[in-house]
């Protein structure tokens, strides 16, 4: 009996995998610490398993033999050994980075806040209580608690008094507060599950908004009835957006819409003169190409983005337009964006807003962007899609949406009273009876903040603004003519549950009450509150982004870490603290540029020969000189990673509480406090997100 033919397909696969593994373990060619004999042995090991492959033998493959499976297991072990071998060097590098960060990094400017002072006092108290409990443990008082009457030593009497005070006066209110937070936690969890069930129902049934008409793909100018296309105003508000202004303007200028039916406003609030000149030059280039685009710059820059948009809507020519599309400076709509959104207004006279979903070009840039992608995927696919389909209301995202101008005017226009002008106009339009539509299948490219500093400032504005708005519009909601169910949804679900209760219980329960219960064992948090329910909610939250399942534990820990920022912002907005009105433009890096715009340009209906005239005209007009500013980097503040003292203080509180939990042998609580404390420490040292050398 002849031997079976060799499995060439497996050998070819094996060689590729072996090369990958060898690349992990093999030393660098110029590494002086590796002898020539060792290098030769490693090279021999990489070559020995190779067998010439035959391309035509792919169809002759069969199952893997035991010998081949043994080699496969060896390869996996080889791979794992390489990863384990690199762990000490990675840990050492992390510790060295942390040491340098502590010695040289600037400290965040919010160190003197009320919340930080309270956390610092809590930390001092936790350390003192830990020292007292350690003394009691070594004295044996944990096993036979002393009574005040029988105590001989002063320390023993002190500990006996502490036991009495904590049992009679401290533990009961802490337990009551814990029970309240548990109830709020369960209510918010039920809300999240209901939203997810609604999303599953929409997906299983294939439900989505239906349009009465559709625009065909292709050239909008070629033999088409232009009057069928409504007049659309496109606005691009920006402020010192040096990194992204070109790509956003270019993406909007090549929208597939009749040029005489569309006008683009570049609303520049930049205070950097060089950036102003660059944006003007870019606008003039597109004007010479035949695009109807205008540049506007305000001399009095009040009201931030709301003031910028309100100023643009006051122009006389706006009355000739029916719809307005808004894109922030880092957003790049696809050429068919208007063709996919505008048709939904046909036959829906009570429709005010069509909102598209965001898509992120840098979601895999680092761990911070991956975790943001999980959060925002749930926000768009679950929260906004479900609310848009079932109740025709959700918060406007401030960009990547099309408004009916009549609805804006009917709702009072853009107001400058909060830092969330998008949510403000959405709530007022809803109270006036207008409806919204969310399109989950229409996506607009944008960027995520890559540094923790930028993300923290963004989240502060996003969580302080809703509380400002709730204070201002609460009476208006009660007096409005909408149905009682819509009033209840706005007050209890939209504002209280999702904007106030969520940051309140997540910070109070996991950052304050849980550490307290370690020092006050008479008050308890069940293991299912600490571990099981948060784990289930993390699984629910990550379902819209299934590729992110490997990051489910970092996501859970990071969300609890961000609760201190969100809680602080919520309190600031609710009680009108000064930081609640702070507006800082989120820093962009211009990640989404060349590749996307090249693909867009291929669909540009204008002939390519026209671009030559554009460049010639630009050169003649002197715009080429302005473009030299692109390569000039103005000297400014040196960019550095920072230290965040609130997060660091909470890290030491949680680590102190985890040490105390060891004395009580509370396993789940110990591990949760330990890993949560480490997460706070990593974030406090700014080791998550963009790292600046």
TrEMBL record:
Top-level lineage group: Eukaryota
Record keywords, A-Z: Cell wall biogenesis/degradation, Glycosyltransferase, Golgi apparatus, Membrane, Transferase, Transmembrane, Transmembrane helix
One GO cellular component term noted in the UniProt record for this chain: Golgi membrane
Transmembrane segments: 118-138, 176-202, 490-519, 668-688
Disordered, as annotated region: 603-622
InterPro entries listed in its UniProt record: Glyco_trans_2-like, Nucleotide-diphossugar_trans
Coiled-coil portions: none
Annotated Pfam families: Glyco_trans_2_3 (PF13632)
Compartment(s) where it occurs, according to its Swiss-Prot or TrEMBL record: Golgi apparatus membrane
GO biological process, one term: pollen tube development
All residue ranges annotated as the Glycosyltransferase 2-like domain in the record: 324-517
Principal cellular location given in the protein's record: Golgi
Any one GO molecular function term: glycosyltransferase activity
Membrane topology label: Multi-pass membrane protein
Cited function: Probable beta-1,4-glucan synthase rather involved in the synthesis of the xyloglucan backbone than cellulose. Seems to work simultaneously with xyloglucan 6-xylosyltransferase. Xyloglucan is a noncellulosic polysaccharides of plant cell wall and consists of a glucan backbone substituted by xylose, galactose and fucose.
Family, per entry: Belongs to the glycosyltransferase 2 family. Plant cellulose synthase-like C subfamily.
Protein name: Probable xyloglucan glycosyltransferase 6
Species: Elaeis guineensis var. tenera
Lineage summary: Eukaryota, Viridiplantae, Streptophyta, Embryophyta, Tracheophyta
